[in-house]
Amino acid sequence: MPAANVHFEVFVRRYPDSPWALKTATESRDIAMDEAKDLVKRGLVAGARVMRETLDPETGEFQSLTLVTLGLPEKPRKVRAPEPTEPLCISPQDLYTCHARERIGRLFETWLERHEVIPFELLHRPDLVEQLEASEVEITHAIQKIATPEAHSRGTTLAEMTATFKSLGERAIERLMRDRKKGLPEAALETFAQVAVAMSRDPEGAYRLGCAVAGYLAPAKSWSEKVGLLLDLADNAPAEGAGRALALVVIAEPLEEIVRHEKGLDNIVGGSLDLGARLAAMSRLAAAKVVDQLVKVEPSVAKVTPELSDRAKRLAKWLMSEDFTGVRAAIGQRILRDLGGGRRLRPSDPEGELDVTRGLAMSLTAAAGKLLPLDDVQAAFTARSKTLVARDFVESYLGEDATVMEEAEALVWLIENIIGGANKREAGRWLSSLIFSLRFEREAAQGHFAAKRLTELAKLQRGVARCGLVEEVYRPIQLKLGEVGGAVEAEARLIATTARAPKPALERLTVLLKLACGETAPLGPCADRARAEALKLARADDTRAELSGAPGQVDAIRDLLKHAALAA
Prior knowledge:
mainly alpha, 66% helix, elongated
């Protein structure tokens, strides 16, 4: 059977007692299955179901087959009065609402992609409608895809619902063609303000001005060029009044559809960028004022945030106003969707992925509120963090040639850059398994410079405490590092050698106190031995004599003694 006669639908239940509602219709089985699993896994819905719809060419009806049902079982529902069988869209004008345009975009996704247009253009350009009419199978297939779930949810027959949508489509086409014969307004930069003012007094002004705007976009060869043309119109909109309000509302509709379109937004910020750089550019585009200020003061954000093109900067300036709030929100939702997905931000650069994740977190957190709710930002980064503690990423991130100390420091940096209790615990298990491994003890004991190894262990011990792990996870790791440090010092006899070194007593005391307070050695057996030796040395007469002769060092020694006592 031809693939064109088969499509897949994802139905969802938002709550356990909710009815099934259509979420997505697609011709790809994998896309449908992945979306259903992702919705349930992220807790966005209580249940999801994937169905295969096969068109019978003889009867013109679809045969349904449930492929998989995920999530919580359905709760028994009370019998309710039958819902009205009349579909949500009953007149041609209903097709121009934002929800209807979104549905049209999904139904005609392949055709729109092929012609590089958006639903707004299809609904307002007679020439595009004529091209679509010439391909009758596209309209028939779309009607079948929408009629099947509507008939199922409303308890009516597929034939009745198909006839309803077919009639609606014919009336919408007839209306547009009739209006073309009567004469539709045309948009030009010099006259756009006057046209907008005139349309503001027309009951169908939004529809008619939309036709003018769609016609103005027709010569554009790319998504970015379309954005430029729309901004030209916005610059030439009426200065105030109902005409300006209508003009900007109409211009915002295609802008919003373009930025929701994956290729459309990529073309604006730069299609050659990897996903991480694109998300950083999108953040700068949607919250330019905040991100630009952050780039000036935070090197880690400046490092991962690319410069915007002149056209993107122009759009960013418009997005600072309240006229295109929906466009800004659409970019924000796109950022959340891609950020919470499973695609790598820097596929060939794990360290760079952490850098861009950190930079994005700072940018989006700073812009939270005006761009996106903070809770949604945190949820997206929690989902992203889950991919960063997966085995494939961690193994790629650690590499094959790193030393155990380098791996441990890299894991501590990873833990600092992820959020979510479960993700922190998983990363903590990676770090714990490394620190408690025989390889770590063996490599930490090797080398000629015991003082350097102890300093690295002390630095790692401090990092473990402040990277965000809970105490029951990081405390055993710190104790183990202390034991390893004690073994390293015992083998090198560093403390005994320092105490007997032919150097001034104050110099030896300073070295021992830095070991004792965890500055140059990990807290544990080594620090305890250094503290005992330092106290013994501090009581010696020659040490007291040196202190009396160097009053400027008394405060420094006193601070080290205090820190050593607190670390005990």
